[in-house]
Design brief:
Length: about 160
Amino acid sequence: MALSATTTLPHAVGSVAAVFIDEDFQRHTSQFVGGTLESFEVAGDVDGAFSTTSVRTLPTTRLPEIARKFVGEKLTVTQVENWEAPAADGSRQSNITLKIAGAPIDVTAVQRLVSEGGSTRVELVGSVTSSVPFLGGKIAEAAEPMVAKALNIQAQQAQAWLESH
């Protein structure tokens, strides 16, 4: 299943990127959806290419019943973002992978922070797949709206965070 979302934030790319890699912001977004940030790590120099790894525990109350039978009441989600060095105009790109412990779902996405004057267009394109024979498509189809919503919350919450910090 395909993921696709775009939003524009009235802040420079550097500010938006700094929020996305801030541990307090990551903790805030985890708590916003009823979860817990278990760990967050930045590897490398954030002025160039670097990566982040976050591990979250999230409730499954909003998942379809069929999915909850497989994964239980909580999910442990590991999100790895491999950020490229900034482009000449300051735009950034990160390649995102999500692994959900105990769930046969893989998520890959590319997030672009595109400089538009003093604003940033956040573009997210990716896919949700499942390795379960015969039922994989149905599992991915059920998971896609929840994954898309989770990834979009980051951009939405970044706006509020930038205005309050």
